[in-house]
Amino acid sequence: MSDTSARIQTRPTGFTSESDLGVALSGTMEVRLAASDAEIDAAQALRYRVFYEERSAKPVGDMSATRRDTDDYDTIADHLLVLDHSRGAGTEAVVGTYRLLRRSRIEAAKKAFYTAGEYDIAKIIAFPGEILELGRSCVDAGYRNRPTMQLLWKGIAAFVFRYDITLMFGCASLPGNDVDAIAGQLSYLYHHHLAPERLRVRALPTLHVEMNRLPADQIHAKAALAALPPLVKGYLRLGGFVGDGAVIDPQFNTTDVCVIVQTDAVTDKYYRHYEREARST
């Protein structure tokens, strides 16, 4: 076992509760896991505002009546929250959220990962150790800035460290269902960030949309990268890959790609952060 792999198995001290991730406050902002049903409800309300009211997703079931985005996975997932305490002490402080779903929770519930509805993820399932599915990410319109995104990524890194996550993955969305309008972005991802064969999940045959829409020499790489959603760019900065094939999601009015990130670099960076903290105390 390498030195890095050994360190990944070591959890830092200092977690005081299940919702605490050991990440410091930044001014009035905080990132942590939801600690109550009310906070999960606040995350679902934020998801509804962003996905259905702002981005015109199509509500199903009783979502319109409850004004909540919900599904069966919410009860077995952890919910990462970004809170701005200047908005108040209650659930109104929730301004960002990310749904985190571990393999151990999926197996205990005898369910398949959400991503399996769009991709053949057998190669991910075969990956050793605890794996993490990321999904339902959204941020309030007034908080879509670098500090909020940094807090979200710090929270994910802390979660990865806490639970010894070896691989994380999920469906990341590009806006709209018109794949010709995003041909440059899809082709850029295909030519520059396609996963190695051992991790290359593929869109299900009935849903598969070809990503290789433009030859590599016709892609303006810098412009295509700049046009990608911030969340996708964040995955790529962590060394992330994409699977083969995009999937059109008519309910959410998006085109999805499957992103896969091995967490060695994430956890190693986070471990060094804790080492520095320990030396300074």
Structural features, described:
The protein is α+β, with helices and mostly antiparallel strands and 281 residues long. It has one domain (3-280): Gcn5-related N-acetyltransferase (GNAT) (Aminopeptidase), CATH 3.40.630.30. The protein is 35% helix and 21% strand. It contains ten helices and ten strands. It has helices at residues 3-8, 37-54, 63-66, 103-109, 122-125, 146-162, 183-193, 221-227, 230-237, 264-280, and strands at residues 29-33, 78-84, 94-102, 119-120, 130-139, 165-175, 202-203, 241-242, 247-249, 254-262. Strands 1, 2, 3, 5, 6, 8, 9 and 10 form an eight-stranded mixed beta sheet that branches. Helix 6 (146-162) packs across helix 10 (264-280) and helix 7 crosses helix 8 (221-227). It is globular and about 50 Å long. The model is unreliable at 1-14 (pLDDT under 50).
DSSP, total strands: 10
Distance between the termini: 30 Å
CATH topology: Aminopeptidase
Low-confidence runs: 1-14
Portion of residues within helices = 25-40%
The dominant shape is globular
Question: Judging by the overall fold, what is the CATH architecture?
Answer: 3-Layer(aba) Sandwich
Cα gyration radius (Å): 19 Å
> Structural class of the helices, strands and pairings?
alpha+beta
Total count of helical runs of at least 4 residues: 10
CATH superfamily: Gcn5-related N-acetyltransferase (GNAT)
Largest sheet: 8 strands, mixed
